[in-house]
Amino acid sequence: MRIAIAGAGIAGLCTAWLLDPVHEVVVFESQPRIGGHVLTLAVPDGPDGQAAVDVGAQHIAPGAFRLFSRLLRELRLAAQTFDVPLSTTLMHHPYSTPLLVSPHASSSDRARSTILGDEWAAVGRLVSGAAEWAAEDNSWATPLSELIEPLPVTREHKDMLLYPLLASFFGCDTTQVKETSARAATAFLIAVPPATDDDAPVWHNLHTGLGAVAGALAAQLERGRIRTDLGVKLLRRVGDQVEVTDSAGRSHTVDRIVLATHPDEAARVIAPLPGTDRLVDALNTFTYVDVLVAAHTDPAYMPPNRRHWSTNNVTVHDGWAETSTWYGAAGVDVFKSWVTHRDRPPRKPVAQASFRQLCLTPAAVRARPQVIAAQGEGGVHFAGHHLHHLDSQESALASAVDVARTLAPAAPRLERLLK
Ligand SMILES: Cc1cc2nc3c(=O)[nH]c(=O)nc-3n(C[C@H](O)[C@H](O)[C@H](O)COP(=O)(O)OP(=O)(O)OC[C@H]3O[C@@H](n4cnc5c(N)ncnc54)[C@H](O)[C@@H]3O)c2cc1C
Question: The domain 2-58+209-285+364-418: what is its CATH number?
Answer without folding.
Answer: 3.50.50.60
